[in-house]
């Protein structure tokens, strides 16, 4: 008998370059914990089915715990020759329990084993990401609360449009990351399916109690079809889709922080501890964190494209191509976690320059819409009011003034309906507070949204 | 006053090339139905809030219904000059109700209007796709049922591995499309959020009853934050992610049908009505449908990449880039619908060549695992049994025989544990029926899976 | 004999839904011109090989010219039943020349015919894009020349770093689009290969003079291998890669124009004719063109992903999947052309606000590096000078002053090496003009770069 | 003075988590060799410009060589605190030459330094890949030569279409990889541009002789514009596009090898040393190498998407996002190299089962086109001949015979033009050898193509 778990019919040994090329240890090593959990559950299920004795199961489980400790202490040297994590674990297990180790692989294939490991891994990581999202959403709500009342320009097309509360802007991100949470929760539910028992593809011939294995491993469901179970990677694709969408949100926030850190906007001050300088330009303080997070967005998108490309057109069931699935998956997991972690740390230290944002909120004709609304309230149709205000804006721009800096008689050139009460209508505070519709930027709405979010976060 | 809804402050007319470049009519035209639904709900909400009279609301609604009919009859010529569908509708509305039409755009922006239209469109299309998936899953279950008992080789690495039932293979696809259904349902829930009232970005100043608008339009929730509402395209990204995953399933099925239609496999006969021939090779009958579906997979992936790229790093709130969102979305919707439709039509006409698949199931040493299991049942450890069978396979290959074609004495060369009962163990029927673990390929399991699926489909 | 060019062996007619699903007329219609060119060259080659008579060739060519005119006048109704452009042309040809039309398809397959059409199409379009790039590069050089001497801040990390000439910034884009030109030229050379004669896949049995066909059609090479010729889509992939890279450049320029059009930067004024306003906010003037170009970037990326996905893992030779190739290709061609066209129109009308950019160039401690260089020129090591200036910047920020606004004694706190000549060293003009290294921003360099570019453009 | 090269103006130390998040050492470590080459050339250029003394330059160069040896011997511990490879080198340099080390960074920024390192790295790797492609093309030509005369079915739509030589099929891949070579050569030329002297963005104030630096480092050109030089990543994008196209070719070849290794095709035997077995199915011999190469295709596509996404919409000049560029680049380089290497090793060991392929070439009505051509040679129009043969095929299929197995009278049912000479026309050998058009599959053509390729490879 040869060295490999499969070389009975082979006449030539594997080429060393082939061993290196086909080894999955670069990523598999991160799965040992889950692989051992799965093996322990599997040997107990074998015992329950009478395939091995209860005492054998306990001896195997104890041996597997020893292997876990060896690996966690860094005592096991990984080798391409042993191909994957499953073989490494079994190899070390044999060192502890001898020939008994060979019984562990009964009623199991590496095909259902890796499907199990990947699901256990991703369930744990997804739960961790949901917890990170909770912490980050809390940080956003805290930021909104701490800056309640700070006005800033709201933008469309990166043009100043209407003044909003900074807190309203922050709470828009709270909404995005709350949707992300919901998507990860749904993905978690769909990945919570136990594949063991599917063996190579057709199901094992042993009458295993798969529900029992599922309970031991904390799964709520077992897979319904063995061929699907070993060839399905939907749970990875769905996770990576959710991660990609989450990264678009992080990239948007990052873009805004980069803009706001520029000399031109100057809306926020990022803490020194989260910035770096330039080796050549002594004055520079660069918003590296947002830039890097923005840059890492493509990495997650690329991983999704990688995995979609990989899975496209693969005939059933397992194909070796699928060994490549864990590289983009783990990279996406690690990237998203790192980005969330750094934002959780940085967000409480973002200082909003309320003087700057407040002044900016009052300039750039952002009260033009409100002047139009004022005219509508005096009986003009909206489209007409819009045109009338457009002319007033053009005139004011020529004078180098804002609308609220025009005199009443100047304003009345454009409509006789304008009265002294127009100045109140054009103040930043009133503009903000008039937007009391549900979801609007009025202080009372935003305060209510913050309160609701805090309650929700506490309840989660 | 100029021609555009916004040109009050402009001194130069828009360049004609710019009108063509910026027009969204190529895709917007498909939204008129939803745009009009939204406008009718909006004018009723304005009336309820006292912004316009009830009679005005009814006059507007009646005018909008007239516009709907004009467009549906193809009587409205779309023009780049009027930029988008909203302006076309308002333009025609003015023709019917005169100056009153100008009141419709009160308390609304094109930013929240397009967010509404896109959600209404996608909700309807997603529901349609879920219905298509139901029909397709039914067709797969019917195919499984009609071919119950047909054996075929199960493959890993495109190597014959173990015999399975064709129906088990078909039911693996049922599982995939059932997961797709579940993903689209979750996406549908998250897109079911009414954005109107957000106005341009900050919320309208009018106290609209947004829950009322939502009820009129069949939404179950209203958006929580106006800035998020006008700049969120998550619902599109999530739909396109789900569509991409669904296309991987269709591409895998298509790949298999192409393989199975080849002279080498010859497992299925696709109906003439779904194939084409060659203009140069008279003997050809090409599996065009599966090939085209496989080819369209990249189109949906590309659309997802398009939209992810588009949304990356956009600062809040609306940016004109987002006008490009509907092109990949509608293309993905249309592509997925067309692929599902053609598969719903073709699937009932797929003829499985059970003679060919059955013979193939009995060849290629697919009973090797079962010989190993047989040895394990006689007391050998699995890894040893595997190696022992490996040697038997190598020997049989040299003889040009299958394992079950070896005599007992030949077999006993490899292990004395082998007895006469081995031949039963190595028959295709027994191999299939021994895999009775839940999710396995045994006839009783597959029949139960089919029954369960039929009940579920009826209940949906 | 049936209706299709291939249905001799078929017993059922094609399903109507299948005809619609498999038809390529939506994109093929744009190829009629090239298809007819190819057919004319083909019938002349057939005559030269003695397969048909010279008079037959001329009759066919005359008939094909009639078909070209019919189609160009919109007189031919395209139908899904006739599948593709080749069949439509042949169908119309038969109307003009009768049974002779049937001889045209000798020694040819739709597989080599579509490969030819696609290459003819893409060669023409690529040449057009190279010409557009030339015009756009000219516009950039003109913009650089017209604004020679205008200072602005140069940015890294979107932080003001060192003052540069606006013209230097513009010429950076000239370099990018010059590289794009070079890439399209290389792609053009590789696509300039004549595939006709490959027939379905194995080569025609007729001894055609393929070099003659190539000369008639303006190709410089003929394909070397018939199987490669009908299954190769590299020329499309390479074009789309070049187009994607070109779009990254357009997206970067667009991002900058959006930033520069904001109230915060206020560096440029885009012409009214190229902007639109808001239907709700009368003051808005939105940079729609740059936003839309930026948004269209993802569309070209998505098309590239589409085509890469499509071609991945296709076995030789032609597969029907490849019918889907022209959709992303033509979309990318049209998108890139439209973006270049609109930029060629808009660029001459961009007005740089030199007062604003000049003031910005003098603020934000952009002379910090030059103060460090000044200290190095006085004998300090660079890393020390950098640290010393870092402290001076921190101190000046606390005072609310720029470095050049500090008094000499204030400056000397940080190093005794600083003398009166420091103020010259810190002026924007000197900072710019000191960067005389080849490729640097000094006026003389930039003027030389502009001159060189103009000469090159004239020579192209 | 602090620990960082830029912290003069900072009041807080960098957060440890930020150091880890912003460090680029994971990828930078692979660049040390190029970084040191660049620094040696830079210090010589500084000396030539009189900025430092010649003796200082030599002392620095000697110190840098010591650092190179330390790193190559693994004696340098990399740390996130020192951010990047440049700082590690300078840190170690200071240990060898003391304060002089601080002069090295004069007239240079990390922005132009990393642009240089990346170009040096990619030039070397691209040259290596071109050499690998040459070796692989040689292996394909050798395979073609070794199997000259072996017939096999040629496929379209994975349907047997016309017989071809296996060597013709192999030479189709030779053409693809020759085009790849040409693309990498063009990319190499465009990346051969020396950026040093651009400093941070505006050009250095020192009058460096950049052509001299270029000569020292083996570049043929210097960059024309400093802002472009530090913010350009086209050379990476172009490399990754070429790599993606090359991977589509490898994926197609891999797909075919997987198909040909199946029991159904059984066309090739891959060497045991390049295959693995199954841990559960003793009979399996899996084509892992082609499967893994096919699976790695998505990885390169994903990397391209990553980098395109990253670069999209970045304003000039350097942004920290760009630090993420090397991860997909190096991964694509390593992936492509590994795939080419394993194919170079495996290709000479592929054994074509000429008996199987030859038999397959004679079945499946692949002589149908030739029967049509035969009829054309007897005076029938091609489209008619096609239809006539279609009927003969249908009839023969019903009889379970091939066309050449029909008797003359059976054949004459379909056309009276058929004579005894038809059987020669229908033989595999004649079918192949009749395709003597340039690029066709006739033996003389393929032999000529092989000869031409060998001459070209020798000349390269």
Structure description:
The structure is a homotetramer of 460-residue chains. With 460 residues, the first copy, chain A, is mainly alpha-helical. Chain A folds into three domains: 7-106, Fumarase/aspartase (N-terminal domain) (Fumarase C, Chain B, domain 1), CATH 1.10.275; 111-198 and 221-359, Fumarase/aspartase (Central domain) (Fumarase C, Chain A, domain 2, Up-down Bundle); 368-426, Fumarase/aspartase (C-terminal domain) (Ribonucleotide Reductase Protein R1, domain 1), CATH 1.10.40. Chain A is built from 19 helices and six strands. In chain A, the strands form three sheets. In chain A, strands 1-2 form a two-stranded antiparallel ribbon. The model of chain A has no long low-confidence stretch (mean pLDDT 93). Chains C and D meet through strand 1, strand 2, helix 7, helix 9 and helix 10 of C and strand 1, strand 2, helix 7, helix 9 and helix 10 of D.
């Amino acid at each position: 008998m040869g060295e490999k778990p499969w070389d009975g019919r082979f006449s030539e040994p594997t080429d060393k370059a082939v061993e290196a090329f086909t080894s999955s240890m670069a990523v598999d090593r991160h799965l040992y914990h889950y692989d051992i959990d799965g093996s322990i559950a599997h040997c107990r299920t074998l015992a329950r089915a009478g395939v091995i004795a209860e005492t054998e199961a306990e001896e195997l489980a104890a041996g597997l715990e020893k292997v876990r400790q060896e690996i966690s202490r860094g005592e096991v040297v990984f080798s391409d020759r042993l191909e994957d994590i499953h073989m490494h674990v079994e190899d070390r297990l044999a060192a502890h329990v001898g020939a008994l180790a060979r019984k562990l692989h009964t009623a199991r294939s590496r095909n259902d084993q890796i499907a199990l490991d990947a699901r256990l891994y991703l369930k744990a990581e997804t739960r961790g990401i949901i917890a990170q999202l909770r912490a980050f959403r809390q940080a956003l709500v805290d930021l909104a609360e701490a800056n309640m009342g700070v006005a800033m320009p709201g933008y469309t097309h990166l043009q100043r449009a209407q003044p909003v509360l900074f807190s309203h802007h922050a709470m828009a991100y709270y909404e995005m990351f709350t949707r992300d949470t919901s998507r990860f929760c749904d993905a978690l539910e769909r990945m919570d399916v136990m594949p063991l028992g599917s063996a190579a593809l057709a199901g094992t011939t042993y009458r295993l109690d798969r529900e029992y294995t599922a309970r031991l491993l904390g799964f709520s469901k077992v897979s319904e079809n063995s061929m699907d179970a070993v060839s399905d990677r939907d749970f990875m694709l769905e996770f990576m889709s959710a991660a990609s969408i989450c990264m678009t949100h992080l990239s948007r926030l990052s873009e805004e922080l980069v803009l706001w850190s520029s000399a031109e906007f100057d809306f926020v001050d990022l803490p020194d501890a989260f910035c770096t300088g330039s080796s050549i330009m002594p004055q520079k303080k660069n918003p590296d964190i947002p830039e890097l997070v923005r840059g890492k967005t493509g990495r997650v998108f690329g991983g999704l494209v990688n995995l979609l490309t990989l899975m496209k057109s693969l005939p059933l069931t397992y194909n070796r191509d699928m060994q490549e699935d864990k590289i983009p998956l783990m990279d996406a997991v690690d990237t998203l976690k790192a980005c969330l972690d750094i934002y959780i740390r940085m967000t409480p230290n973002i200082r909003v320059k309320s003087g700057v944002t407040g002044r900016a909120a009052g300039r750039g004709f952002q009260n033009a819409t409100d002047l139009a609304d004022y005219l509508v309230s005096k009986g003009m149709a909206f489209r007409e009011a819009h045109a009338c205000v457009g002319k007033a804006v053009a005139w004011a721009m020529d004078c180098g003034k804002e609308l609220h800096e025009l005199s009443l008689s100047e304003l009345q050139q454009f409509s006789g309906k304008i009265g002294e009460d127009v100045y109140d209508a054009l103040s930043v505070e009133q503009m903000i507070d008039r937007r009391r519709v549900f979801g609007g930027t009025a202080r009372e709405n935003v305060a209510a949204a913050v309160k609701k979010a805090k309650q929700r976060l506490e309840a989660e």
